[in-house]
Amino acid sequence: MKKLRILVLMHEDLVPPDSIEGLSDEEIADWKSEYDVCAGLEALGHDVYPLGLSDDLGLVRNAIRRHKPHIAFNLLEEFHGVAVYDQHVVSYLELIKQPYTGCNPRGLMLSHDKALCKQILSYHRIPTPKFTVFERGKRVRRSARVSFPLMIKSVNEEASMGISQKSIVHNEAQLADRVAYIHEQVRTDALAEEYIEGRELYVGLIGNQRLTAFPVWEMLFTKMPDGMARIATRRVKWDAKTQKEFGIKTQAARNLPPVVQRQITSLCKRVYRSLSISGYARMDFRLAEDGRVYLLEANPNPNLEYGEDFAESAERAGISYETLLHRILNLGLNYKAAWRG
What we know:
The protein is 35% helix and 22% strand.
């Protein structure tokens, strides 16, 4: 690949320094993914221009005029403090005919709206837990089509926002309390889905039309006390002390029957295409004790931090971190956006 000018879009609070020498793991944790991507792109020989954003698209326009990037590497997860607004930033890039990496606006919209996503998956007969939505400002009335225990979460927030052990509810009182928490603290509608006990599995995929699925990855809860749900809460995902206390680790899934591996890979590709995802994504599954597989969430533009699940599973498939970034760039440059027609 020729040398490229790359504008890397990220939240203004996550713009990394030029070097992490002398900094502890805790000090770099918040912006490690942004640092790894920028450093990886520079290691590939490209000119990299990090751009921190919060609520001003004018900064994007000015940076594009100044640097004339061949491509924008999109690491945004929100805009104006709203998780689903990243899709509108990508729409803006399409409107000004600026190539970018990662998922297109349609795929982001369909995936971010967990209720709409589940409706689409149900139409395509892709197994996902039964669910209902509790809108803000309305009374909590459980539908007869869902039964306890239920998992309560935000209908559109990512990164396990608002998820804790209290998210698993077993009766009407707990349901009302947790829905109120999502409404008042997370400030979104609440999604209630039937809780599936089983193994927590992740699968990374990359591609536009032709898709490559990485090896199935698993989150293990090696020291989780009896009576606690084995779920990826916000603390489990992001708090190092919690991870150490409960023995949280991820690795290639072991002892999966070949037929289950094939089923999961097939489901991943069906979900990817059903939701119009492009670029790269991670699918989250539950493998129930009876052997049934359930799609929990589809996550476009997952964390690209070196050493995290997506990059590690790519490495297991023989794709180094630099090669992974290279392929993501190529997919962005070759994505057939409508304006190219």
